[in-house]
Specification:
Structural class: alpha+beta
Bound molecules: magnesium ion
Distance between the termini: 8 Å
Number of helices: 5
Largest sheet: 5 strands, mixed
Number of strands: 7
CATH class: Alpha Beta
Length: 160
């Protein structure tokens, strides 16, 4: 069996008047995330991780933010489209692990729902997905609540 690892990173700024959507879940928060799409930083980091592991480029190449088609796009839908390519190339998810770096909102209460939503899109079981929140101990841009960051790592297995 062949295996491949992938790494994805994303960050988005908090702004007034937008929802805070992570892994397709609306998290209650006083601000949301700025971006051309729905700014779902978890979906974006995971998309880059799976594409990178499969050697299929990155989210910016597939869904350029200069293209009006992706304005306010549902990023879980973009992840599903990317995963179709990964599956077609003969790969399946071994496991995925994600860290959401933010002071608030708290991620823990939403982690199970986020994992379930990702599992559906990635065609794997929720038990193959880890989601955890970490604060940055008030340091840096996440520590100042200017935005949040996500790191995702994935292991792909050959489906054959
Ligand atoms: Mg992004």
């Amino acid at each position: 069996m062949s295996i491949r690892v992938g790494l994805g990173y994303d960050s988005h700024r908090f702004v007034e008047g937008r929802p805070c959507i992570l892994a397709g879940q609306h998290l209650p928060h006083d601000r949301g995330l700025a971006g051309h799409s729905d700014a779902d930083a978890v979906a974006h980091a995971v998309t880059d991780a799976v594409l990178g592991a499969a050697g299929l480029g990155d989210i910016g190449a597939l869904f350029p933010d200069t293209d009006a088609a992706w304005k306010d796009a549902d990023s879980m839908r973009l992840l599903a489209m990317a995963m179709e390519r990964v599956l077609a190339a003969g790969w399946r998810i071994g496991n995925l692990d994600c860290v959401v770096i933010t002071e608030r909102p708290k991620i823990g209460p939403h982690a199970a729902a986020m994992a379930a939503a990702l599992a559906e899109v990635l065609r794997c079981a929720p038990g193959q997905i880890g989601i955890k929140g970490k604060t940055n101990e008030t340091m840096g841009f996440t520590g100042r609540n200017e935005g949040l960051a996500v790191i995702a790592t994935v292991l792909l297995e050959s489906a054959a």
